[in-house]
Amino acid sequence: MSINTTNMTRLLLSTLLACLCLGARGQGKHPNIVIIFMDDMGYGDPECYNGLLYHTPNINRLAAEGMRFTNFYAAQAVCTASRAALLTGCYPNRLGISGAFGPWTRIALNPKEETLASMLKSAGYHTGMIGKWHLGSKAPFFPIHYGFDEYLGLPYSNDMWPVDYNGKPMTDTADWRYKCPPLPLIEGDSTIRYIRNLDDQGELTGIYTRRACRFIRDNKDHPFFLYLAHSMVHVPIAASAAFRGKSGQGLFADVMLEVDWSVGEIMRTLKEAGVDRNTLVIFTSDNGPWLAYGNHAGNTGGLREGKGTSWEGGQREPCLMRWPDVIPAGTVCNRIAATLDVLPTLARIAGCSLPANRIDGVDIYALLKGDPTAHPRDELVYYYHTNSLEGVRQGQWKLVVPHRSRTYKLNMPGRDGYPGKQPDIDVPMALYDLSTDPGETLDVQSEHPDIVRELQALVDKYRADLGDDLTHTPCSGCRAPATIP
């Protein structure tokens, strides 16, 4: 009898321990991750970053319930390079990636590089991408070959199509767009339809949003990673019939209202699926606004210049992160952070090993927790073109080295879908104190020669690693992209 009692006691204890372990695993379930990556949205475009003319209540809610970053950077101020950095945690020039790939580009992100998707997939996540890819123009260089279980979207920018600024088919054979094929909407590896006109463009935000919500519902019972890369607010901007004219403030405002609706739909679906409190949502942009397009472009909130430049208006982006019970609600982070840092931070959160190849991102989890002493990133380097080092930031200081840069300041911007001129000019060396002069208006190098020397040493460090076309320095730490046959 005593033996049976002992066995029964052991069985009950084993059962209790098993239940406790299962409960612990349930409480410690990896969070779902949603990244909403806007295209050409400026620092000053969301209402919670002092956006004008229109309201973005759903984006505002992310700020109210999470953390708003004020010094968050894209790795470069151009589409392809910026996206490569987000997905790999590497400066894009380290990967041999630059510029904005077109339909004819014969290189792609190397499939040997570990991406956010492949990393999280190894941890048991179901992974999906919706929207603009821009890291390879044809199969087999689409997302499903880089760790994503499913994909629906455009292979490159929505202006890479044979359509003129007025929305009519191109007739000028000398224009680069005339040579573009029809703009394909891809599912997996296959084209399922073509985006042929502005009305079709206006459907994209809705198409992406509905698919994203379906992805959330389908995967609510296990960890998932959703990368939603909107085509808006990149020109040609377009809104669906439900939002066209709704703002009363012009087409750009209508598009912003629809983008905000999309964020609201994502958040509503997370809540209805019962996973909103265990989901980290990250909202940011690939680069600053394309200011040459005037009323069809956004604003930088007073930062200098915009897309295609290494000035603050080109690379400093709005960024909001929401994760209830982890990220303190209604907080502001003034520390330097970047899209480069998303991969190592998610690796920490999901318990993944970092990629075998060297990356440039740092873990900013302590910032998300609201640790006031955390300072994971103190420096950032500004590259543009193929591999031109144009500036470096350390703490409050930014040193700009001599280079050629696009400017939007010499000509009036265009209107209603047509661009203004955006010439290149010579930029001299300058030092800016971003703590008091985020608009980069006052060169203070004569007042701080010691800071200039320190930052020049930092420039030399990066040149030795990543190279620099401006000084004809080869890259010693770079890896090769893939070649598209």
Automatic annotation (TrEMBL):
Matching Pfam families: Sulfatase, Sulfatase_C
UniProt KW keywords: Calcium, Hydrolase, Metal-binding, Signal
Gene3D superfamilies linked to this entry: 3.30.1120.10, Alkaline Phosphatase, subunit A
InterPro entries hit by this protein: Alkaline_phosphatase_core_sf, Sulfatase, Sulfatase_CS, Sulfatase_N
Molecular function in Gene Ontology: arylsulfatase activity; metal ion binding
SUPFAM superfamilies noted in UniProt: Alkaline phosphatase-like
Family annotation (PROSITE patterns): SULFATASE_2 (PS00149)
Keyword hit for Cytoplasm: no
Sulfatase N-terminal domain residues: 31-351
Signal peptide (residue range): 1-26
Family indicated by similarity: Belongs to the sulfatase family.
Protein name: Arylsulfatase
